[in-house]
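[Meeting: bench + compute handoff]

Bench side (C.D.) handed over the final construct sequence. Compute side (W.E.) agreed to return the predicted structure before the next meeting so the bench team could plan truncations. Sequence as handed over:
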Amino acid sequence: MQLNKLLLISFGLILTCTAAWSELTANNLVRQTVQRLDNMGYDLELRAGFAKPKEDAKNSPVVIVDIDEKSLSEQGRWPWPRNKIAELISKTQALGAVVIALDITFPEPEANIAAVVLEKFPPNLINTNAHLLQNILQQFNFDQLLAQSVQHGDTILGMTFHNKSNITIGSEPIPLLTLTSDNAQKLSLAEMSGYTNNIPILSKAAKSTAFINAFADSDGIIRHASLLLRYKNNIYPSLALEATRVYLLSDIKLEMHHEANLINIDAIKLGKQIIATDIYGRVLIPFHGPAGAFRYIPATDILLNKLPAGALTNKLVFIGPSAFGLG
């Protein structure tokens, strides 16, 4: 009996030492194997959790307005003209949405179809009807229409960062925080080298802008979400984090500690809520369930006025595409 107990203690000590060594060793093969086992355990835990009953999606403050196959079939092929996006935002606001976040970017101006037609007109006809033609041009300025709908409420636009290219498209996004050059270089956040943002008229109209990047793990599966990224000396929030901040009327602060010559992030403080992260400002995604775990509304149903008045009262609404080839 004493021997069995001794064997169990010895086995436990061996496992503990092996686990500690695997975490501290510089051997890449060992570390990759441990990481793979961690990922497998996380995946199994998630799938087991999905089998449990979840809270009714109707009670969630989060709603997805989905540009799905049905919406494309009824409203026309993608990309939709920006007057249609403007109409979608305005009708979503009218249904009571408090905050709208777009998982879409608008990096280039949309051609004014009236201006394209007028290019074919004889100059003498344009000169004699200048006032009338100017009104026509304004009516088909869909970028302006979209800016007006965005400006009307708390609307957040998406943008993307590049980590392998220094290309910059659109206006430079407004940061969440700005650091000194020295602190920025020491910070453990992933540094981006370029961006694709929205055209200036839309960026100025929006409540704010946030990135929509998603980075897969080495096996191609997305388990982590970056809540913060760095570009130059500035820190930027993800669309999810920024939408939540605006919805809760909260501010964001970082909890950090110094280690050697680095500044490591421990957590993000969102109002009174503390979101623990890794040093790169990432969290393991707490997936609520498979597709449909949140309430999904086809975008076309909003455009066709199929929802009752007040259907989105006090909701945080994300608008984005899931149709094949778009999602």
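W.E. noted at the follow-up: Residues 213 and 241 are 12 Å apart (CA to CA). C.D. will use this when planning the next construct.
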